[in-house]
C-alpha cells in the first residue's frame, strides 16, 4: 500500500472557551478574544478544508492544486515559514503538521508546504474527512504580549480514503492545533494556525 497521508481538518464549530484567570483584567477584552476564536478559528479551518479538497482531488491539474497550496499558506503563521522580530530573531518557528498511519504505526512531521505537496499525489480516488467540535485544551489561552495570545484547540477527525467505491483506509485521530491571536492596530483580531499535532489515532 502506498504511504498514507491522514488529511486533517474539516468544518467545525468552536464551543465557548474559558480564559485562565490571569489572561487579562479587562473582561471586555476577554470577551472579544473568545468571540474571535469562536468565529475566526472556525473560518480558518473551513477555508483550509476547502483548499485540501482541491489539492487532493485526483482530476484537478497541478496548476489548480498549486493555487490552493499557496492560498493555504495565508492561513498559517508566517505563511508556513519562521517568524522574526525586528532584530532578526526567530520568535515563532515554522509550523509543522503531524501525520499518522495506523497501517505503519508511525507518526511523521512535515512543514506545511511539504505536507501539501505530498497531498497532491495522494493515492485515493475519493477522500472524506469529518471533524468533531473543537475544544480548548488544558492551559487555556495564554497572553504572550499586550496584544498577542496563544491557545491550543483540540478536535477529533475521521478520515476515509477510497479506491473506487471501496474504503481502503479509515482512522479517527485526536489532534491539537496551536492558534496565534493578535490584536492589530485597527483594533481587529487576526487568527493564524500553527503547529498541528497528533495526540492519538485509532481505526
Could you please describe the fold and organization of this structure?
It is built from 3 helices and 9 strands. It has helices spanning about 25-55, 60-75, 110-120; strands at about 85, 90, 95-100, 105-110, 125-130, 135-145, 150-165, 165-185, 190-200.
The shape, in one word, is: globular
Percent range of helical residues: 25-40%
Order of helices and strands: HHEEEEHEEEEE
Structural class by secondary-structure content: alpha+beta
Total strands: the figure is 9
Rounded to the nearest angstrom, the radius of gyration is: 18 Å
Beta-strand portion reads 35-45%
- Largest sheet, if any? 5 strands, antiparallel
Write the layout of secondary structure elements.
Elements: H1 27-56, H2 62-73, E1 83-84, E2 90-92, E3 96-101, E4 106-111, H3 112-120, E5 126-131, E6 135-145, E7 148-163, E8 166-183, E9 189-202
Antiparallel strand pairs: 1-2, 3-4, 5-7, 6-7, 7-8, 8-9
Helix pairs in contact: 1-2, 2-3
List key phrases describing it.
203 residues; alpha+beta; 5-stranded antiparallel β-sheet; two-stranded antiparallel ribbon; 3 helices; 25% helix; globular; disordered N terminus
